[in-house]
Every structure is written in structure tokens, then in C-alpha cells.
Amino acid sequence: MSAATVATAPPATPKSALLHTPAELRFVTLDDAGEIAYFRSASKSHPDRPNVTAIEIMTLDTFCFCKAAETNRPCWHTAHVAAAWRAVAYRVRCERMDLADLEAHGHSLAKYVMQAEAAHQPYIAAQLREGLDTTRRVWRERVARVTLLPFPCDAAPLLAA
Ligand SMILES: [Zn+2]
After folding, report:
1. Is residue 2 over pLDDT 90?
2. 27: how many CB neighbours lie within 10 A of its CB?
């Protein structure tokens, strides 16, 4: 391999990925077959045209319709779309848990976060904390639904949802 080849080969992950997070990719929808997840993100260069990024769930192949992708350059969207999809799938899993399971799951995650921090594993701790934050958000939303009901009420159906 010549030095020119190395110099012109695009990097697998662009430096711009360091400036962004998966949370900037907003889940839009799945295709009709449920195989491709679509995300949207704001375009810095074209504020009137949001970027659309997709991931094939089974193969994790990614597609993007941004300016960089049009010119066959790697973009931060495809670098983060797998993590964005995992976050969506994780949230759906949390939403399907009942309140007791959600609480138990949150307690376990909190314990694992502390263990990872104590073992000086910041990357693992950060990923676990992300899961813990999602678990907390879903738990709070669920509890808020219950507390917004007029009193007295029968909250059992909501708690089982
Ligand atoms: Zn892109």
C-alpha cells in the first residue's frame, strides 16, 4: 500500500464524531417491515433540510443522506446511529417492564455503575449510566402518570402496563 493511498483513504470514524453524541439523532420511525430505523438530526449547513440517517437493524449497515454522504465522505451521523438505535431499543425494553421490574433493574444498574467507577472503567460506567438514566426517565414518567390521576383512583392497570 502506497503512502498516497493511506493519505487519501477516508477515516472509518470522522473526527466530527467526537463533537456529537447519539442523543442528537432523533428516532423518527421504522420502515413497514420493521427492518430499517430512521433518525433525523439538524443540519448545520442546511437548517431548512434535516439530515436523515438510517440503520438496518439486523446487519447494522448504515445509510445517510447528508452533505458529507453525498460526496462519499464519512459523517458523524453514521458513526453514532448504532448507539442511537440501541438507546431506542433499550427504552422500549424499559417501557415494557412493570414498575417493580423497572425499579429492580435501576437498582442493579446503579450498583454496576458504582462498581465500574470503582474499577476505573469510565467507558463502561458511562454506558451503564446512560442505561440508568433511561431507566429513571421511564420510571419517572410512569410514576407521574399515576400521581396525575384524580384521587381516589385505581392505579393497578397503570402499574401493570
Ligand atoms: Zn451523515
Report:
1. no
2. 15
